[in-house]
Design goal:
The chain has 7 helices and 14 strands. By secondary structure, the chain is α+β, with helices and mostly antiparallel strands.
C-alpha cells in the first residue's frame, strides 16, 4: 500500500469534488427523504459519490468502496483496502444553510484506519492525517490534545438527546450540560470530529452514526491523542450504525463513567 501516492490522489479528488459541490448551487438541487422524513439526500450527494467511485475504481480496481448513497460495494468485512465515503456529511445544512457540511473520507486497510480526510467545503478548511504521521489542518500540524476538566470543556451534543428519548437516559446528560462550560451542535458529525481534533471543542457525542460519518475523522482525531469509542467504551462498529463519542483523554472516561447511560 503506497500511502504517499494514495494520499496525494485522495486529496486531489476531494478538492475536485469540493469544487463540484460549490458550483452545484448554481444548478437545480433536488431533495428527497430516505427512510426517515428528516434524513435527506440530494441529487448532488448522489452525483458526487458516483464521481468518487468512478475515479477510485479507475485508479485502484482492487480497492473496495463503502459509500453512504449505496453506489459502492456491498461491504461485509473490512478486509483489504476499503474507502469509507460520505460525499456530503450534513446534507440538511447543505440544503438549508449552504455551509457547515463536509466531505468525509477514511481509507482503511484490514480494519485499521490509515488515511483520514474531512473537507469543510464552503470554509475551504481541510483536515487530514496519515496514520503515525500526525494530523493537519490545511498545512498546519495539529498539536497533541491536552487534558481538559469537564467544567472547562465545550461539548458537541444534539439537544434531542438531553430531552426524554428512546436511546439514552437524559437526566445524566442534563447534569453534563449543567457542569460543562458550554455546548454546541453543528449538524455534521465530520465537522464536529474535526473540531475535536483541532481543539475547537473538547468532545462530541452521538447516539447513532454510520461508518462513513466517522471513519475519516477517527484517523485524524486519534493522531492528536483523542479517544474515540462507542458509548460502551468499545471500538466503533464500522460495518453498521453505532453510538459514538470522541473526546480529549480523561474527559472521555469521565463522560462515559458519569454521564452516559444507554437504555
Amino acid at each position: 500500500m503506497n500511502l504517499g501516492y494514495i494520499d496525494r490522489f485522495a486529496k486531489s479528488l476531494i478538492r475536485e469534488a469540493g469544487h463540484k459541490i460549490r458550483i452545484s448551487f448554481y444548478s437545480q438541487i433536488d431533495v428527497e427523504s430516505k427512510a426517515e422524513a428528516n434524513d435527506l439526500v440530494t441529487n448532488i450527494d448522489k452525483e458526487v459519490e458516483r464521481f468518487f467511485i468512478q475515479r477510485i475504481r479507475d485508479a485502484f480496481p482492487d480497492h473496495k468502496i463503502f459509500g453512504e448513497e449505496g453506489f459502492g460495494d456491498q461491504i461485509h468485512s473490512l478486509d483489504g483496502i476499503v474507502w469509507l465515503l460520505d460525499p456530503i456529511d450534513g446534507t440538511m445544512n447543505f440544503i438549508h444553510q449552504k455551509k457547515n457540511f463536509a466531505i468525509s473520507l477514511g481509507i482503511y486497510k484490514d480494519g485499521v484506519g490509515m488515511l483520514g480526510y474531512i473537507y469543510d467545503v464552503m470554509a475551504d478548511d481541510f483536515y487530514h492525517a496519515v496514520k503515525g504521521e500526525g494530523a493537519y489542518y490545511n498545512d498546519e500540524r495539529l498539536p497533541l490534545l491536552e487534558v481538559t476538566r469537564l467544567e472547562e470543556a465545550v461539548i458537541g451534543i444534539n439537544a434531542s438527546w438531553v430531552v426524554p428519548n428512546r436511546r439514552v437516559e437524559h437526566e445524566p446528560l442534563i447534569e453534563l450540560v449543567a457542569k460543562c462550560r458550554g455546548t454546541r451542535s453543528y449538524g455534521s458529525a465530520a465537522i464536529e470530529l474535526a473540531y475535536v481534533a483541532s481543539g475547537r471543542i473538547d468532545a462530541y457525542v452521538s447516539m447513532r452514526l454510520a461508518p462513513w460519518d466517522i471513519a475519516g475523522g477517527m484517523v485524524i482525531a486519534q493522531e492528536v491523542g483523542a479517544v474515540a469509542t462507542n458509548l460502551k467504551g468499545e471500538t466503533p462498529h464500522l460495518l453498521g450504525t453505532d453510538t459514538f463519542i470522541v473526546a480529549r483523554p480523561g474527559l472521555h472516561d469521565n463522560m462515559l463513567r458519569n454521564h452516559i447511560r444507554l437504555k
